[in-house]
Amino acid sequence: MDKSERRKKLDQTVKDFNKSHKSEIFTMGSEIEDLKVIPSGIEKIDDFLGGGFQCGGHTIIWSPSYSVGKTALALTTIANAQKLGKLVCFCNTEKPIDPARFRFFGVNLEDMLYIEAPENAEKALEAIRTLCRDKVIDLFIIDSTNGLCPKSVQEEKGGKERSLEKKNIASLPLVLSNFYSIVSAHIFRSKAAIIWVSQGRTQGIGSFFVRCGLSGGKAQEFYAYQIISMRKGQNENAPMQSVKRFLLDKDQKLRYKTENVPVGFDVVLKLQKTNSCNSAKENSELHIAFVAKKGFVDSIEEKEQEIEITGTKEEKEIIEKLLIEKGILKTNKKHPLLDSGYSPEPSLSKGEIKPPQGGTGENVKSFEDSGIKKMVVDSIEDLSKVMDVTDAKEELKKLQEDVKIGDDQIKKSKTTPYTEELVDKLTDSAKKRAKKSEKTLEEKMVDKGLAKVNKDGSIETIPVKPKRGRGRPKKQK
Description:
Layout: H1 3-21, E1 37-38, H2 43-49, E2 53-54, E3 58-63, H3 70-83, E4 88-92, H4 99-104, E5 112-116, H5 121-133, E6 139-143, H6 151-154, H7 171-190, E7 193-203, E8 211-214, H8 218-223, E9 224-232, E10 240-248, E11 254-262, E12 264-274, E13 284-291, E14 295-297, E15 306-309, H9 313-325, H10 372-386, H11 389-413, H12 420-437, H13 441-447, E16 451-453, E17 459-461
Parallel strand pairs: 3-7, 3-9, 4-5, 4-6, 6-7, 10-15
Antiparallel strand pairs: 1-2, 7-8, 9-12, 10-11, 12-13, 13-14, 16-17
Helix pairs in contact: 5-7, 10-11, 10-12, 11-12
């Protein structure tokens, strides 16, 4: 039998075999597709891994310690996969996660399947099997492997609850070993990427060499396409930002000092195992910055220095005003008297005038449309013409108390907050108090005994008699 006849017979045998098994088990090597990946969206990490996380395979992310960015990397990958139109499922077996944490990394919760605290490991693993068998998922993340609790640990053979005193030896590795051997074929055909987030465990107990290794048994290490370990780097490699701190010295002069403050930490990724030709070599390390307000960043942008004001509450107010005068800080305040802290409501910020909510019916008017806001500001400006600024500030405090009293009356009567009558009443009472507190030079001389008031109301100065003694008397001014 020559080569061509053998080839024809081979093709017919393969065709009959596939037909009998109702699947294309045999294919030609030319039909092998290029391996696809799901990128994390972080350029440095994607280049380090060979483009991203492998589709149709398992990737393990683990660390010997906590809070090094494992979950952050998983959530960042979810957000980027959703941008690419991928279907994602996140299985949380470890601890509750606030929805704001997902949104911080850009995850769209409406488009993500979520499994929280499965009863046992078998249910979580069966979910992976079902989704991959039906080819309806692109990315499945388990956080974490250590949170999976097998059914054999929880129950006895008869279904009775198992005591915590009983020892459980290699229960999870046994379950995972069966899972990998059964489900890996479904995962490969579905081209879904499976990411396992795991922690370390102490290995080598009873020997001379004790170390921290990956938990979950040897089956994980065997079936994994890539194994990535993460740890924190040195403090000197942490991302820093320059901060200018202003303070007042003993002489009440404005001083500042510039400091470099850490805004995150350095993360070290080590590629312990890889089957990719495009990734870095095994045992290679990558340093990347994790910033608390942003997450993983490829590079730290040089921005303007942040400004911090230190000291007591009074010192902070003084420093703030000095910085505004020098143009270092910007303010949206329109009037100098409003900067003093005037506000109809104590809960409002400085320079902001808003009416309290409440009131119904025809008497209620819009605070902006009725022009009452302008009247309040104008009345404050009139106060500055009547008295000095320092006296005006005290007068404004009294005016604020009147406003509070007016607010209490408004709440009782359920009428419109700031009517024109109330504004006029408050303004007139404030001007009257201002005129009473204002004294002329002659009135001050009368108080000090340097002048007297005649019957007709005129004021006459009293001449000062020179004191007797040595030398000539001083001339009167």
